[in-house]
Specification:
The complex is a heterodimer. Chain A is an alpha+beta fold. Helices cover 30% and strands 22% of the residues of chain A. Chain B contains 19 helices and 29 strands. In chain B, strand 14, helix 9 and strand 15 form a beta-alpha-beta unit. The chains are: A alpha+beta, B alpha+beta.
């Protein structure tokens, strides 16, 4: 810890060093940027759904190498940017000297009213400097435009050339030194090792942990809460590891979903599928698995997949560590067995459950079936009406293991244990499915809300099992 | 170089992409105060006590604006004076009862949270059917009648039904915003994100109790409007002005997204009740249609909106005997308002739904029955609308045939049938639907516009007009019109922010009329100036003035050329006036509301679209596979801008009809007041194959430079998506597809179950 050295609480905004000074640590990066006179970054919703506040943050990746990340400035606190570089649409080009992304958007008719445009530009900017060749449209799903119908924006994005070697923003990827080192200013604390975080949690008054902040910042921006002390978990190496050890894939609770998306691509098919439907690129750049589990929302998507994969959690406090099955973790609506002063350190998934080819199970007689389904009013970047993830194991066409996990059907993410029992030991066929669907139809009592009626939820729960069957009958009828 | 007809980028594009385009909420001033509302927690109530003392104790709170602070008329109503700015009568959930004015947002919010009004709770009227039951209406019913529908309906095959079409939040990315301050004369200046600066000026003036000449309103640019800032920007401008007057400091009112969605009106939910008669071929013989709109708590523009729904309940079809009645229901929700299409879309959804049902009843493909019923200008009696307007230029036949060919409609229909036969639970559907949309304000006197064009002695030009820029590219087109008319390059033209002290008594930028009206007024002003300059140039070139042409920045006679700025300087020295107003009034239009007869529209805009969808019949989830559009913009003034309007309107309409669901609970509280619960389309929701063309060789003689209005009509191209979903659902059998609007996955699953049940009954009865 560097103590109360306020001069250390700086970050770079469009290439100029700015200091948090005596700023209230609950201030969002968006409000900080706008108060500094840069009004190009807009507030469209202040809940991370519209993307008008998107900025690019040069941030270290797992290996410490800088990388541009598009983030929602409305859900990032200014303190989280300390040690990093923040770029806005005003900083990357000027009307008379446009950045390539800006030139493409402007000439393609990509802006009409222009209010969402700076956010689109910064999403596109970040994606342009990513180290893959094709422009990934997923980078733009978190930016809402109400005017254009998106076609010119999509075309502008695909027509973008890759940056040249002498592009100054490209060069920064090799020359900038950004890091999430320890600091503490006002009520915002970023420790750099786990014991220190746990100590602060116990000793600071009314301290709350915050990782990416994509859910917790909503308490500031829409419920107008103010936190006395915030302990950022972003600088703690113990929470940022991904490794395979002793039959488990271990994921640090503070690893961003984007990192999982890229580093685990192809390793966990259910997660690969999940990211397509999970929030937006801006959110995934900041959100963590620990956060998705920590908020214990009944409609969180990741817990459902993790339940199907039989994940475990390592919980840590000053008293020590304990490992619990995820299925025991959720106690009730937004209640978990996490104790005061305890945090989620690691998510562990048995490697044999990952669903990818595994030498031990390549026997022809043994098969895995996995699928996940997210049901929502809008396919992308919506909150689930119902979420389901299924994992089935079969030997010689007999179901040996079944894990059917659901979200949005009860007060907690939950497994359909009765239905699983019905399936185990059965031949994987129409008769077994019909029987299981009947049990499943009665297993939950979903509720009505603004997203859908209880009746709709009740109908699609067994339908998802039917879909799973139909999609897989070709494999194993 | 030609300016009109070029696909030049939006005039502010470079400012947009660099974040340097300023919006009303971005404007900063020394000592500016901000506002936050105290909101009602009941849909209908009387406030018994409103104690503001606790708010005033909060550090940073400067004052609280309450009803007694209003020096003038406590009213912001656009048409009828039924909208108090502040009132103890609670008319809808979330209504602002007082506004806390403070140094910071935090202080204003904290102050508002400390005001706890006491209420006498009353019973609200919620939903259209409850309003009908309670006879709760804002106005007398409207009606248009042609022929003898009731007699014919007794003699022919008929179907009866009801369709509820849901509303839509505008979801302009920039929420309502105003900044007001007193100028050096003690007069009020208001910067407002408004589509109607003149009305904003009028409302501010009468709330303050001032003459209008003491109030200036500027609309710089809007971050989207879509009709939502036609009348509903006014209360926030008035509030800002009121607070500025009381505190003698600048005041900014900028609504958060949540509060914007809770306070502002939306597209009207409308209920259609119909009885339709048709012959064995599917040709319509008679229609009796009643349209009930949920107007919300005040009238706002609802009567004109219902009128437009009635004018458009024919869409592109000739209905020989037609009675349409319109009702504006008074309910305890936000006051529903203008939204792109202004009632037209709801009327057109109704008739398209009806035609689809008629087609299934006569066992024909819907597109065949649609085509059969088109207006036909070659048949003497089949090109007059139910309100008596003759359609002189029916373009739908050409558009329809061209689009069916270019979209490979028939082959794809076979592919879809094969796919549906082979897949156990995914089903595809495709539909083609037409658009005919009447252009002009149906309130005739609004069809006027003014301009003020200033040429400076260096040859640079400022153009002022009454229209506002909300992203639709109006200022870009205006600059093109001015450049073309003066014969100069676009760089010379600067279109100014819209101000009430430049052009007075303007109409709203609405009804797709922005370019038609203001473009014509600007053209008029530029022609007056050009004529003056022709005389000056003629003297300089020593030729007759009618032989001088202005083009590319030069006055030209035969092989002689003079720079524009030289002619301008000479004119100045000769004491020739270098500024002019311009004016335009749309000729020939008229409408008698009582008789339901007239020619309310100058012309019609046409279009058609084909959409193909795929639904998952186990979940109701769906996606749009492909859309093809052919749309009539006349001779496009700017194809880049116009294509943007077509595509943007289509996607916005698709959102309205499919995923954008407004949910009010049974206490009248809106449950979908944020993008987390109210879902507009994203980039991932548009079709991978999206083919959009503008109709070629489409000159419209009745509008400026042969162009056509394009703001609203394309929204209704999205009806093809809804009808395609119904086509996919119909693959399960049944004679009628009852699909709710919006067609959320839940609605699609419901509709599938209904057709499956109906198909089962048919089989059992055989």
């Amino acid at each position: 810890m560097t103590g109360q050295d306020q001069t250390a609480a700086n970050f770079s905004l469009n290439g100029i060093s700015v200091s948090l000074g005596a700023l209230d640590h609950n201030t969002t990066l968006l409000n900080f940027i706008r108060a500094s006179g840069l009004t190009g970054t807009k507030e469209g919703c202040s809940e991370g759904d519209c993307g008008a506040c998107t900025v690019a943050v040069l941030t270290p990746d797992a290996s410490g190498k800088p990388k541009y990340q598009a983030v929602n400035a409305c859900l990032m606190l200014a303190g989280m940017a300390v040690g990093l570089e923040v770029w806005t649409s005003e900083g990357i080009g000027q009307p008379e000297a446009l950045h390539a992304v800006q030139a493409a958007m402007s000439s393609a008719g990509g802006s009409q009213c222009g209010y969402c445009t700076p956010g689109f530009v910064m999403s596109m900017f970040s994606e342009t400097y990513a180290d893959h060749l094709e422009f990934d449209e997923a980078a733009l799903v978190g930016n809402l435009c109400r005017c254009t119908g998106y076609r010119p924006i999509r075309e502008a994005a695909h027509a973008l050339p890759k940056p040249k070697a002498n592009d100054p923003f490209f060069e920064r990827l090799n020359t900038s030194s950004v890091s999430k080192s320890a600091f503490s200013v006002n009520g915002f604390h970023r420790p750099d090792h786990l014991p220190e975080a746990l100590r602060l949690l116990e000793t600071l008054p009314n301290a709350r942990m915050i990782a990416g902040g994509t859910d917790m910042a909503l308490e500031i921006t829409t419920a107008f809460k103010r936190f006395e002390n915030l302990i950022s978990l972003e600088g703690i190496p113990e929470l940022l590891e991904i490794r395979e050890v002793e039959g488990f894939l271990e994921i640090g609770a503070g690893v961003s979903l984007s990192r999982l998306e890229t580093e685990l691509r192809g390793r966990v098919p259910l997660l690969d599928e999940l990211w397509t439907w999970f929030a937006s690129r801006q959110i995934r750049n900041r959100a963590t698995l620990g956060g998705n589990l920590g908020t214990a929302s009944p409609i969180g998507d990741a817990p459902v997949v993790l339940l199907a994969l039989e994940a475990q959690l390592v919980l840590s406090s000053i008293q020590g560590e304990r490992t619990v099955p995820l299925s025991d973790y959720f106690l009730g609506y937004r209640k978990t067995l996490l104790r005061t002063f305890e945090l989620i350190k690691t998510i562990r998934i048995p490697i044999e459950n990952l669903g990818t080819i595994n030498p031990a199970h390549e026997l022809a007689s043994k098969q895995y079936l996995q699928a996940m389904y997210k049901i929502a009013k809008r396919g992308h970047d919506d909150i689930s009406t119902v979420m389901a993830a299924f994992h089935l194991e079969m030997e010689n066409n007999l179901v040996t293991k079944a894990r059917l996990a659901f979200g949005g059907v009860a007060a907690i993410p939950i497994r359909a244990l009765e239905t699983e029992k019905t399936l185990i030991g059965q031949v994987w066929n129409r008769v077994a499915i019909d029987k299981a669907k009947k049990v499943l139809a009665l297993e939950f009592k979903p509720i009505s809300d603004a997203r859908a009626s209880a009746s709709y939820r009740a109908r699609i729960i067994p339908n998802l099992l039917e879909k799973f069957w139909l999609e897989n009958t070709g494999v194993n009828a | 170089m030609k300016a009109v007809g070029m696909g030049v980028a939006h005039e502010s594009a470079k400012l947009h992409v660099t974040g340097t385009a300023k919006y009303t909420g971005d404007l900063d001033m020394l000592d500016v105060l901000v506002a936050y509302p105290v909101q009602a927690i009941h849909a209908r109530a009387r406030v018994l006590k409103l104690d503001i003392a606790a708010a005033l104790e909060v550090a940073g709170v400067v004052t609280v604006i309450v009803e007694s602070d209003i020096p003038g008329e406590n009213n912001t109503g656009a048409v009828k004076h039924d909208e108090p700015l502040l009132s103890s009568d609670v008319m809808y959930h979330g209504q602002a009862l007082a506004w806390v004015i403070a140094e910071t947002d935090d202080a204003a919010r904290a102050g508002a949270a400390r005001i706890k009004p006491q209420y006498e709770i009353l019973e609200p009227i919620l939903g259209i059917q409850n309003a009908i039951n309670a006879h709760s209406y804002h106005t007398e019913p409207l009606r248009i009648l042609r022929g003898n529908p009731d007699t014919i309906l007794e003699k022919t095959t008929t179907l009866e039904g009801e369709i509820l079409v849901g509303g839509q939040d505008h979801f302009y990315l920039e929420t309502q915003a105003s900044l007001a301050f007193l100028d050096e004369d003690g007069c009020m200046v208001v910067h407002s994100s408004t589509q109607h600066p003149s009305e904003t000026q009028a409302v501010v003036a009468h709330v303050l109790g001032w003459a209008r000449h003491k109030v200036s309103v500027q609309a710089l640019r809007m971050g989207g409007g879509f009709g939502g800032k036609e009348s509903q920007a006014n209360p926030y401008a008035a509030l800002a002005a009121l607070a500025a007057l009381k505190t003698r400091r600048p005041v900014r009112v900028r609504l958060t997204r949540h509060i914007d969605m809770q306070l502002t009106g939306k597209r009207h939910p409308m209920l259609g009740k119909y009885r339709v008669g048709f012959d064995v071929t599917g040709k319509l013989e008679a229609l009796h249609l009643e349209i009930y709109a949920d107007g919300g708590w005040s009238l706002d523009l609802s009567e004109a909106i219902v009128s437009r729904a009635m004018f458009h309940c024919d869409n592109a079809y000739f209905i020989p005997n037609l009675m349409v009645k319109g009702f504006v229901c008074k309910t305890n929700v936000t006051s529903h308002t203008a939204f792109r299409g202004f009632g037209g879309p709801q009327g057109m959804v109704l008739i398209e739904d009806i035609l689809d049902r008629v087609a299934r009843a006569v066992k024909k493909r819907p597109e065949v029955v649609r085509e059969l019923n088109f207006y036909n200008e070659n048949s003497l009696d089949q090109h007059t609308t139910h309100y008596g307007q003759t359609i002189s230029d029916v373009r739908i036949g050409n558009i329809w045939n061209t689009l069916k060919t270019s979209s490979d409609f028939e082959n794809r229909q076979l592919e879809i049938e094969n796919f549906n036969a082979s897949h156990p639970f995914l089903k595809r559907g495709m539909a083609i639907t037409p658009v005919k949309f009447g252009i002009s304000f149906t309130t005739t006197f609004l069809n006027q516009a003014g301009a003020l064009v200033l040429i400076y002695s260096d040859g640079s030009v400022q153009v002022n007009h009454g229209g506002t820029e909300m992203g639709q590219g109006l200022h870009t087109k205006i600059a093109q019109i001015a450049a073309q008319t003066l014969g100069v390059n676009l760089e010379r033209i600067r279109v100014m922010p819209t101000r009430t002290d430049k052009v007075p008594n303007t109409s709203a930028t609405a009804a797709s009329s922005g370019t038609d009206l203001n473009g014509a007024a600007v053209k008029n002003a530029c022609e007056i100036l050009r004529e003056r300059l022709e005389h000056v140039a003629a003297e300089m070139l020593k030729c007759p003035s009618d032989e001088v042409r202005f083009e590319n920045g030069f006055a030209v006679h035969l092989k002689q050329k003079l720079e524009f700025e030289k002619v301008v300087m000479k004119a100045y020295l000769e004491r020739v006036s270098l500024f002019s107003t311009g004016f335009f009034r749309t000729p020939e239009i008229h409408y008698d509301k009582v008789a339901g007869r007239g020619e309310p529209f100058r012309y019609f805009a046409w279009g058609a679209s084909v959409s193909e969808v795929e639904i998952d019949s186990l979940t109701g989830m769906w996606h749009l596979r492909r859309s093809d559009i052919l749309h009539d913009c006349g001779d496009s003034i700017n194809p880049l801008v116009d294509r943007g309007q077509v595509e943007g309107g289509f996607v916005q309409g698709m959102g309205w009809l499919t995923m954008e669901e407004l949910v009010w609970d049974d206490t009248g509280k809106l449950r979908t007041f944020a993008p987390s619960t109210y879902k507009i389309p994203t980039l991932a929701d548009i079709p991978l194959e999206f083919h959009v063309s503008l109709l070629p060789r489409a000159t419209e003689e009745k509008a400026v430079f042969g162009s056509k209005a394009v703001g609203e009509p394309p929204l209704m191209l999205a009806i093809s998506v809804r009808e395609a979903l119904k086509d996919a659902i119909s693959s399960f059998g049944g004679l009628e597809v009852k699909l709710a609007a919006p067609s959320t996955p839940e609605a699609i699953l419901d509709a599938i179950e209904i057709v499956k049940d109906a198909a089962r009954e048919i089989v059992m009865s055989l």
